[in-house]
Amino acid sequence: MIRLKNIKKSFGKQMVLKGIDLTVEKGEVVVILGPSGSGKTTLLRCINFLERADSGAITIGDLSVDCHRATKKEILALRRKTAMVFQHYNLFKHKTVLENVMEGLVVVQKWPVERAKERSLQILEKVGLSQQIDMYPSQLSGGQQQRVGIARALALNPEVILFDEPTSALDPELVGEVLSVIQKIAREGITMIVVTHEMGFARDISDHVVFMDNGVVVEEGKPNEIFHAPKEERTKQFLKRITPEWRYSI
Amino acid sequence: MNIDFRFIVTAFFEIMKALPLTLVITTVPLLIGFAIGIGTALIRLYKVKVIYKIADFYVSFLRGTPLILHIYIVYLGLPLLFDVLAEKWGWSIRSNSIPLIVFVFVAFSLNAGAYMSEIIRSGILAVNKGEIEAAYSIGMTTSQAMKRIVLPQALMISLPNLCNMFVGLLHGSSLAFSISLMELNGKANVVASTNWKFLESFIAAAVIYWGMTILAEKVTAILEKRLRMFIKGGVA
Ligand SMILES: Nc1ncnc2c1ncn2[C@@H]1O[C@H](COP(=O)(O)OP(=O)(O)OP(=O)(O)O)[C@@H](O)[C@H]1O
Ligand SMILES: [Mg+2]
To answer: Where does the chain cross the membrane (chain B) (predicted)?
Structure first.
């Protein structure tokens, strides 16, 4: 289980996160929605300390960390319980697909190379990249690169995978293949926190939806409640703006 | 005045005998300088307490002064330093038994280290920050990320400049003759003055340097071609 308590973060004078609380149960898929600049990316980055929150506490499984005081060791321990899938993939360019996936197992989790390779191959098969294992990231399409990014995260068997707009850098025709891979692993019971602007996908995949605006959680609940019966005005406006076609299709 | 073309050939083979020494005083400092360069670059990037000031000074001073002066200063200064230390620690040897080539190694390595630290530093800064974050996100420590993700790519990015460094050092090595080391240039001077055929000897020496330079450029081109695949980068 993951629990964020009163996470605050400022960049200079601008307060980007104004006290975020969030609980994610094991196996749950939480989708975070919100307008651009609302602090979604910052929140994800605070969870694995790519950004250090000014205050608040983060609990993942049996590890609790005070953001302000967290030591290097605690940060490392926390990062080893999480994995992240980035908007721009951020694959290791000098490593092959297989090496990208094996890297964390071998270097961080100290697996023997043979076992790491075996597991990585299984996972690459799961994301549909068995044919590309010896290629370099620059030889792949965006959709393939992002699936490597997902495999890299998945290989580590983390307690939670953080997705930051995993499809927003992709050409439209490549979005589907990535979303369906995420959907597939979601069904396997992996805990996920997903920031996305793909509303249909968000509705299908989520167990819980959080709507953020301006550094606060405005509203949260079951996908049905948030998408079809939002209580807050700001949520309504956001959904109307981002999913105009729904008004016709429902 | 006329040129004795046949002597150019004779001189060429005579001077070639000094090529091994030239290669030694080029590659040894290149390797030592490479190690110094990586160390210095990391110290300056991470702003390691106090010593980064020294590193800043080192790079600024050596890049701000000509190589010939580094040779002179090391040649004249190192013995003094050595003797003081020898006295203090009770070593049995004195500076006059230091072989000439050591001064060249020290001066060239320090010089190469300063230049290479700048090359490597800009290589490190050119590595995609997102990949470093990805390394952290999978739980790597700072030094694991540096060793496994950043440095390999930084060195690939720096490769063309590091090869240029080799050429610069190769040409710079001709200054070793100023403290009487008989490398290519020194040998050329000797062949020239014993035969009274200066122009021919120096043309022969020039051809040798040129040939080595072309060779180095060829090797660089091959290496670069093999590395371009990664450097080109992904879609993002
Ligand atoms: N490193 C930084 N330095 C300064 N300001 C930052 C930094 N990172 C983010 N911000 C600011 O914090 C605010 C929230 O940014 P964030 O990226 O978290 O928003 P977001 O909800 O992810 O937006 P988007 O949907 O556009 O990705 C923005 O105003 C942004 O300019
Ligand atoms: Mg964002």
So the answer is: 20-46, 67-86, 98-116, 202-223
Instruction: List CB contacts (< 8 A) between B139 and chain A.
Output: 76, 79-80, 104, 108-109, 156
Residue with tokens 């060793």: B147
Mean of pLDDT values over B179-184: 94
pTM value? 0.88
Which residues make Cβ contacts (< 8 Å) with residue A146, sequence separation at least 6?
A85, A89, A166, A167, A170, A178
**Into how many domains does chain B fold?**
1
* ipTM value for the complex: 0.94
Which of A160-169, B1-10, B33-42, B182-191 shows the lowest mean pLDDT across its residues? B1-10
Give the tens place of pLDDT for each residue, B19-36. 999 999 999 999 999 999
Q: Name the token pair of B126.
A: 């050119």
Q: Where are the beta strands (DSSP E) in chain A?
A: 2-11, 14-24, 29-33, 55-60, 63-66, 82-85, 160-164, 192-195, 208-213, 216-221
Residue bearing the CA closest to ligand 1, atom 8? A42
Nearest bound ligand to CA A86? Answer: 2
By Cβ distance, the residue of B128, B138, B236 closest to A104 is B138
Fold of A1-60+160-171+184-249: Rossmann fold (3.40.50)
| Domain range for B92 | 5-232
